[in-house]
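Practice problem 4.
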C-alpha cells in the first residue's frame, strides 16, 4: 500500500502566492517546489506504508510528466521505498514554456535540489535514481555531478547518444545553423506509435493532456545534443552502480547508446538487460515486458540496500 502525498510537509508554498499551474490550478493546492529561477515545479510523492529504507527519485522523459510512473512508484513502495518525482520545467503541471529550456543543466540542477530536500527530511537513507529516455540523460549527468551521493541508477531506454540517422555531420551542421537563425522551428512531434507495442498504452499517451503533443523545437533538440556530448565525455569516468534496461526495437532512443555506456563505464557493478522486440517505454510495453521491468528494477534496488534492511518488507 502506498500514499500519494498532496500537501505538507512536502509542499513549499510561498506566502501570498497566487501562482497557478498551466492547467489553471493554484500551486497552493498542489505539491511543489520552487526552483532557483523562481519557477514552480509540480511534485509527486509515493510513501510506503512502513518506514522507508531508501529514497528513489524518478526522472521522466521528454514531452511527458511524472504521473506516468505511478505503477513503477507503487511497486517500489511495496518494498518500503519512498519514491518521488517532479514535472521538469516546461512539462506537465510545472511552469515554463512547453519543452523550452535554455540550458539542459537546469534539469540536473532542479533534480539535485529536489533530492537534497528529500535527503534533509530523511537523513541517512541511500538514494537511487530511476530515469527514462531524456530522464535517463538527466539521471546520468546528475550522478556525474555528485558521483558519491547515489547508491545506484536504473536507466530505462536512456538517451545516451543521439540516434545515428539524426546526428550525421551534415545534419548536425544544419541543426546548429538553424538554431541560430530560427531556434523555435519545429522538428516534428514524437511519434507515439513507437512508445509501446501495447496499443492501449499508445492511446493513453495520446489522450493524456499533460503530455506535450506539439512539435519539438530545434532549440530543445540542440540541448539534447549538448547533453549527449557531455555524457559521451563522462562515460569513461563513471564508476557508480547502474542497471540498463533497453528494448532492441527502440526507435526513439538507440540501444547502441546503452551498449556503449555499458562497455565504456568503469563501474564494477553494472548490468545491461535487453528486451527482444520491445519498444521505448519498457514500463508501459506489453504486460509481460512491463511486469518483468518493474520486478527487475525493484529487485536490483533492494539487493543494494544495507544488509540489515534487505529482509524487511
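Answer key:
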Amino acid at each position: 500500500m502506498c500514499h500519494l502525498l498532496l500537501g505538507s510537509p512536502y509542499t513549499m508554498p510561498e506566502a501570498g502566492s497566487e501562482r497557478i499551474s498551466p492547467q489553471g490550478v493554484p500551486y497552493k493546492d498542489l505539491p511543489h517546489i520552487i526552483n532557483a529561477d523562481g519557477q514552480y515545479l509540480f511534485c509527486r510523492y509515493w510513501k510506503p506504508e512502513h518506514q522507508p529504507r531508501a529514497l528513489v527519485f524518478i526522472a521522466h522523459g521528454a514531452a511527458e510528466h511524472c504521473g506516468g510512473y505511478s505503477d513503477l512508484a507503487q511497486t517500489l513502495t511495496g518494498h518500503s521505498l519512498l519514491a518521488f518525482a517532479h514535472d521538469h520545467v516546461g512539462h506537465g503541471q510545472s511552469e515554463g514554456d512547453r519543452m523550452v529550456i535554455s540550458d539542459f543543466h537546469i534539469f540536473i540542477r532542479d533534480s539535485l535540489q529536489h533530492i537534497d530536500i528529500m535527503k534533509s527530511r530523511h537523513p541517512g537513507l541511500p538514494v537511487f535514481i530511476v530515469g527514462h529516455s531524456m530522464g535517463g540523460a538527466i539521471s546520468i549527468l546528475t550522478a556525474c555531478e555528485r558521483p558519491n551521493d547515489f547508491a545506484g541508477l536504473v536507466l530505462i531506454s536512456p538517451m545516451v547518444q543521439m540516434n545515428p540517422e539524426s546526428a550525421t555531420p551534415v545534419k548536425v551542421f544544419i541543426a546548429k545553423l538553424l538554431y541560430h537563425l530560427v531556434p523555435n522551428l519545429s522538428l516534428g512531434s514524437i511519434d507515439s506509435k513507437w512508445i509501446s507495442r501495447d496499443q492501449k498504452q499508445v492511446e493513453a499517451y495520446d489522450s493524456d493532456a499533460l503530455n506535450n503533443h506539439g512539435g519539438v523545437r530545434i532549440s530543445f533538440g540542440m540541448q539534447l545534443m549538448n547533453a549527449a556530448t557531455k555524457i559521451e565525455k563522462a562515460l569513461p569516468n563513471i564508476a557508480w552502480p547502474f542497471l540498463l534496461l533497453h528494448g532492441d526495437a527502440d526507435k526513439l532512443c538507440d540501444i547502441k547508446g546503452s551498449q556503449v555506456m555499458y562497455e565504456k563505464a568503469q563501474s564494477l557493478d553494472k548490468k545491461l538487460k535487453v528486451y527482444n522486440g520491445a519498444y521505448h517505454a519498457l514500463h508501459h510495453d506489453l504486460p509481460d515486458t512491463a511486469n518483468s521491468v518493474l520486478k527487475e528494477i525493484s529487485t536490483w534496488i533492494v539487493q543494494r540496500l544495507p544488509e540489515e534492511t534487505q529482509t524487511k518488507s
